[in-house]
Write a structure and sequence with these properties.
The protein is mainly beta. Helix content is 14%, strand content 43%. The protein contains 3 helices and 18 strands. The two termini are 30 Å apart.
Length: 237
């Protein structure tokens, strides 16, 4: 079985902890849950089931009535980045996870890809042959999964709001700046790592680093008017 790299394991554990805190808040503030027990999705882990529900595929769309496993087709498991976008069910939190295979999830907690909701409705990841995704939510949902469409960065780029950027050069460092107010998050994704080195308010001037990789994706999550810039440090190995 393929071992999970430390970068992925650390970030994944953090996201599952955040998810657990959110779940705890929901459980303690819902009177109905206190009287009748927690919703089934809070205690049902699809990767622990011998025969988990498999999401229905229709082209690039997957759907299910609740917790389920998504079996990705060959064209989405080439090792390149894919985008997962939520298109329905935004009224409920949707926890998304990933495993190298269905069998691998029995031995190690799936890598967390975060929580999709009405505000943050999409995420990206790298999928290799055999990769499966896991959905935990209370109610029906629909996801669109496609190859990631991202702007390619050669050296420097600037912009506003939320954006996906792709870099496939030799460098493994970049400078990131943000000027203005509002919350901004930057995720740095490779096939071996998933980190969020920037989660901040206000002005940012920070160095980003990642392990050498054929491809790195930057997911910048910012308010529409947030002005930012990314500059890859050329000449670094």
């Amino acid at each position: 079985m393929t071992a999970v790299p430390p970068g992925i394991r650390t970030y994944s554990a953090l996201l599952w902890v955040v998810g657990a805190i959110v779940i705890g808040a929901i459980a303690t503030t819902t009177v109905v849950s206190a009287l009748s027990g927690p919703p089934r999705w809070l205690t049902d882990f699809p990767w622990e089931r011998e025969n988990p529900t498999i999401a229905t595929q229709n082209g690039s769309t997957w759907s299910a009535p609740g917790n389920a496993m998504i079996v990705l087709p060959d064209e989405l498991t080439t090792g390149s980045a894919i985008e997962v976008r939520r298109t329905s069910g935004q009224g409920e939190l949707l926890f998304l996870g990933q495993s190298p295979s269905a069998e691998a999830a029995r031995d190690e907690l799936p890598q967390s890809l975060g929580i999709l909701d009405a505000v943050n409705a999409d995420t990206a990841t790298f999928a290799s042959p055999g990769t499966v995704l896991w959905v935990r939510t209370d109610g029906p949902w629909t996801l669109v999964i496609e190859p990631l469409q991202a702007e390619t960065v050669d050296s420097a780029v600037s912009g506003t709001g939320t954006r996906y950027l792709r870099y496939d050069g030799p460098s493994n460092t970049a400078g990131f700046r943000h000027e203005g107010d509002g919350t901004i998050t930057v995720e740095v994704l490779t096939a071996a790592e998933r980190e969020a080195p920037v989660i901040s308010l206000g002005v940012i001037d920070q160095q980003l680093t990642w392990s050498s990789s054929p491809e790195v994706v930057f997911h910048i999550i910012a308010e529409p008017g947030a002005v930012w810039s990314l500059s890859v440090d050329e000449g670094t190995p």
